[in-house]
Design goal:
Layout (H helix, E strand, L loop, with lengths): L7 H12 L11 H9 L3 E6 L2 E6 L1 H10 L21 H13 L3 E4 L4 H16 L7 E6 L6 E7 L26 H4 L7 H20 L3 E3 L9 E5 L2 E15 L14 E13 L11 E3 L10 H77 L6 H17 L16 H4 L15
Antiparallel strand pairs: 1-2, 3-5, 4-5, 6-7, 7-8, 8-9, 9-10
């Protein structure tokens, strides 16, 4: 099936991407056209440093070479290369040699996604095949964006153990400190004997959270939590609780011979703090408390570390959702522009076919009139026949488009419903599929 022809604007933008200045997301007036070209597989967009950059594909270069007479045919260096083969030991050895020749540091300026993947495979091959010089290790930065910097460093690779977090100091009493407001006003569902300790723990947790750039505040009146730590844009309620144990209820005994069967619950003075359980973080620890080998005070760094982890996870999910929404919107805008182009193309084809049909009919009528006159040659043509021929030729003249010098018809008014048959499942009103 032949590829649909580009309109003039799309051809101009493709020409600029191939031969002109770089087209990026800063060129907002070209964005919709770039998305339409990408929808046709004529260009690609790569993200780096928070913006996209358009680049022509092999199909785009070929289309421009075949359909644009204002630019020369692109040369081989401008064409897209096929997917790189798997790296070999020789490739990895050459990479190590290049790094050593550059003084131990190799910088690749803003490589493409395919080039980054190729370099990562080379580094993996170098490590797996023990090609790294003895007493050295490889490190690199720029896995997904920016410049990729590969360094050959002396010494063994750094250990990947979890860093030890400094303990959080909890004051010994409430007489020498001024409690944090969130700790002072926090609701504490614990026994009176444990409230002082619980407030001191919350006070230390509030100060440590603020030192790490978080905020600590009192929960909403309707919440059952004791404290809320906000990391970035995400809030994490923390709830205090106290354990309990059952003991015989001696007060229920009325007679000396009566067997004590009644039992009652007493506070165990074992405190615990818990984050709100969420299925968004499966398998993550959310409760910390007093145990035989440690106290709750020893686990405060773990609580803040879990808060930071969840905040980072939520932030990454939010970014991923935003990227997915942006990508969906870009595809929808490209589909909308392509649908508008297809609708106008259909309108023009209808006009062209109507003109061709009228011209063919007018030509056939004229031929018929001539044949009718030839048939009457040598005899007197009846007046009624002449009238019929005169009327038929006048009608042919009225429907023939050639005397009117037909031109490109004006584009029709386009409504969202007009575009629906050309959107292949997209909604004409919003970036959603049916």
């Amino acid at each position: 099936m032949p590829r649909p022809r580009l309109n003039e604007r799309q051809l101009d933008v493709l020409r600029r991407i191939c031969h002109g200045p770089q087209v990026t997301s800063a060129d907002s007036d070209l964005a919709v056209t770039v998305y339409a070209l990408r929808h046709r597989k004529l260009v690609t967009t790569t993200w780096a440093n928070g913006r996209w950059t358009a680049a022509a594909t092999h199909a785009g270069l070929q289309y421009l070479a075949e359909n644009d007479t204002t630019n020369p045919r692109p040369t081989a260096p401008g064409t897209a290369s096929p997917q790189a083969p798997d790296p070999t030991e020789n490739d990895a050895t050459r990479l190590i040699t290049t790094i050593r020749q550059t003084g131990g540091t190799l910088r690749i300026t803003d490589p493409s996604a395919a080039e980054r993947a190729r370099l990562r495979r080379l580094l993996h091959t170098a490590r797996a095949e023990h090609l790294v010089p003895d007493g050295h290790h490889l490190q690199y930065t720029g896995r997904d964006k920016g410049d990729m910097i590969i360094t050959l460093k002396p010494g063994p690779p750094p250990a990947r153990d979890t860093p030890q977090t400094a303990p959080i100091a909890v004051p010994a009493d409430l007489l020498t400190i001024r409690l944090h407001p969130a700790a002072r006003d926090a609701p504490l569902p614990v026994c009176p004997n444990c409230r002082s300790r619980a407030r001191r723990i919350l006070h230390a947790l509030c100060l440590a959270a603020q030192q790490q750039g978080h905020t600590a505040s009192a929960p909403a009146p309707t919440s059952s939590a004791s404290l809320v730590i906000t990391a970035g844009e995400h809030a994490f309620p923390l709830s205090f609780a106290e354990g309990s144990h059952e003991v015989p209820d001696t007060e229920g005994v009325k007679y000396s011979w009566q067997r004590v069967t009644a039992r009652t619950t007493r506070p165990s003075h074992q405190l615990q703090l818990s984050l709100e359980h969420s299925y968004a973080h499966p398998g993550r620890r959310y409760r910390w408390g007093d145990r035989q080998r440690w106290r709750l005070e020893d686990k405060l760094p773990d609580i803040l570390r879990e808060v930071a982890h969840r905040a980072h996870t939520e932030h990454e999910r939010q970014l991923a959702r935003q990227r997915a929404e942006d990508e969906t919107r870009q595809r929808w805008l490209a589909a909308m522009e392509q649908a508008r182009t297809d609708f106008i193309e259909t309108h023009r084809l209808k006009a062209l076919r109507a003109q061709v049909h009228a011209w063919q009919e007018a030509t056939a009528i004229r031929d018929y009139c001539q044949a009718l006159e030839d048939h009457q040659s040598g005899t007197t043509t009846p007046e009624t026949v002449e009238q019929w021929i005169t009327w038929a030729r006048a009608y042919a003249e009225s429907i023939d488009p050639l005397p009117r010098n037909p031109v490109l018809p004006p584009d029709p008014e386009v409504t969202p419903q007009d575009l629906r048959p050309y959107l292949h499942g997209w909604s004409p009103y919003e970036p959603k599929r049916r």
